[in-house]
Amino acid sequence: MANSETLKGADRPNPLLEMVRQLLFEDGQQFSEHALLKIAVARGLIPEEFGSCSKRLFQAHFVLFNALYHLQQELAAQALYLDIGLVQVSVRRFQPASGARELGSSRDEKLRRYYFDWSHFDQATVASVNEMLDDFWLRMGRQPVVEADRTRALDVMGLADPVSWSAVKQRYRRLAMQHHPDRGGDVDQLKQVNWAMTILEKSIQC
After folding, report:
1. Does a structural domain hold residue 152?
2. Which end of the chain is more exposed for a tag (fewer CB within 10 A), N or C?
3. Are residues 96 and 154 in the same domain?
4. What CATH number is associated with residue 185?
5. Residue range 105-121, pLDDT digits in tens
6. Nearest of 127, 112, 14 to residue 60 by alpha carbon
7. 76 in a domain, yes or no?
8. Separation CA 200–CA 149 (nearest Å)
9. What backbone phi and psi angles, to 5 degrees, belong to 135?
10. Contact 20, 65 (CB under 8 A)
């Protein structure tokens, strides 16, 4: 059998594979994607600023899910199923006569092929990732960011293009403290600041 550190379609080791092996190896264990990424940061496996723009966030997500789908195949040999969900990742025992069906589900197979193909990681750009996110939000019944909203968000934050992600975060922290009700601030103003931060988080350039 080939070394599972070597990824299908590309001769590339995954820095997170050993980490997920150590965290998800027996029935009942579960973590959110956010928790797994935080652990990876704490162990120095991915940079702390992985969420500084949509492209970096996507690439961190991709590396993690590549590792998870490799682990899913490894755990199957132990009659364990790694359930990789949108919110939670968990390990559970295969149900009698259903294990092979679960691992071979069209959903899992389609996603496994996607995350095993490193070209999605290599070719990612801010524009391509934002387009993918916009498509996701449309399918979920939510609208993507439009330029008018971005312009208004910058105005709420007292910023102007070109603006860096670090500048946005710094301004957000200052305004959030200034308008927080516990500090005598205005609730409506705080809501506006939070809305602006959400818009800019989705549209900021790397």
Report:
1. yes
2. N
3. no
4. 1.10.287.110
5. 677 888 899 999 999 99
6. 14
7. yes
8. 9
9. -65, -40
10. no
Closest CA to 63 of 73, 50, 53, 74: 50
Both 74 and 174 in one domain: the answer is: no
pLDDT band with cut points at 50, 70 and 90 for residue 5: very low
Burial of residue 97, with CB atoms counted within 10 A of its CB: 0-12 exposed, 13-18 middle, 19 or more buried: exposed
Q: Residue 114: left if φ>0, alpha if ψ -120 to 50, beta else—which one?
A: alpha
175-180-186 Cα angle (round to 5): 90
Cβ contacts of 49 within 8 Å, gap of 6 or more = 56
Question: Average model confidence (pLDDT) for the chain?
Answer: 83
How many domains does one find in the chain?
2
Residues 128 and 157 reside in one and the same domain: no
Q: Is residue 153 part of a domain?
A: yes
Residue written as token pair 């966030």 = 57
117-130: burial string, b at 16+ Cβ within 10 Å, e else: bbebbeebebeebb
Q: Which of 139, 161, 186 finishes a domain? A: 139
In this predicted structure, the answer to whether residue 187 has a pLDDT above a threshold of 90 is no
Domain containing 100 equals 17-139
Residue 124 lies in a domain: yes
Domain stop point among 139, 162, 192 = 139
